[in-house]
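Researcher: Please predict.
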Amino acid sequence: MTVRYVPFLRWKSGEKEALRNLSPTARLNVVPFFLLGADNFKDKKATKKSSSIPAPSVFAMEALGSWGTAPFFLDASPLPNDASGAHPLTNIASSVLSSGGQPIPATSLNASPAYSAAVQSVVHTQQLGVALRVTLSEMTSAPSWLPSWPFPLPETDLIVDLADSAESVLALGAAVNTAFASLASAAVWRSVTLAGTSIPENFSKLAAGNYTRPRFEAQLWSQVANSGLFYQLDYGDYATVSTATPAPNIAWGYPITVKYTLVADYLICRGVKTTGVGSQDMGPQLVKHAKFILGFAGRGRLATCWADDTIDKIAGGTQSPKALAHWVSLAVNRHIELVRSVLP
C-alpha cells in the first residue's frame, strides 16, 4: 500500500520556502493542508513599476510557485467575509484553478454559513471534491450527522484531526482501534486520514539543552493503521511547531530554539535568551544547534534533503545561519522529507 501524507501548514514564508525546496521524491503521494489566515492573505501593493495584485491572485501565484500544480487541501475558514458578506474562498479557488493548480476546499461541521456556501460553490464548479476535517468525537458520532452532509462520500476526504492531543489519545490504547474500525461508511469515503501532533505550543518549560520528544502521532497512526482495518488509513501531522497560531508581537530576546525531526522522535535544541544575564547572540546559537544536529548519533541524514545539506553547511561555517524564519524552512523541509521517506 502507498500511504498518502497530509502535512498541515500555516502558509508562512518559511513554509513556502520549505515546499519549494522539497525533492521530487518527497512530493509523491503528499497532499498538503494549508491553513490560510488573515495575516497571510493580503493584497500586494502597487509600486512604480507594477499594479496592485488582489489577495486571491497573490495566494494563487505563491501556491503555484511553492507547490506547483499538484492537489492541495485549503482551509480558508478563518478569513473574514468580504463587503458583500460572501466568503473569499470562491475567488481564491478560482484564481488557483486558472493558474493550473488543484485546490480542494476543506471545511468542518461547524463552518460559518458564508464559508459553507463558498465551499459548495467551489465543489460544484471545480469538481475536485472536498475535505471534511473532524475531531475524534465527531468521527465517532458520524451516524448522527452523515445524513445531512451535503456532498457524496466518494468525493469526500475525511480527515480526523486530533490537534495536539495525540499523546493522550494514544494512551487510550485499543479503544482507538475500535473507534476507527467502527467508522461509519468507512469504505465509502474517498480517503480517511488520521492527523495530529505531539509538539507543545512552545518550549518555555525547558531549560537550555538538547532534548528528544516521541512522535506520539506517528506511534498512534502505526497502531491504528496496523490494527486490521478493512480500509486504508492515511497519515497527517502538523509540519509546523504546533497547532496554535503564532502569537503576534513577541518581544525580542526569547531563547533561540529549533526543532529537527527524527524517525521516532523530535530533537529539540533549546537555546538561551539573546538579551540579559547569560544571553548569547542568535547567530552563534544557531551554529551551535547545527553542529549538535550534525553530530547527533540518531540523526539519519537524508541524501536528497535540502534542509540537511543546509544544516551541514551552517555547521561547517560555509553558510550563514540566517534568522529563525530560515530555520522554520529547514525544520519543515526536513520534516516532510523524513516523514515521506519512512511511510509505507
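Model: The longest helix spans residues 324-342.
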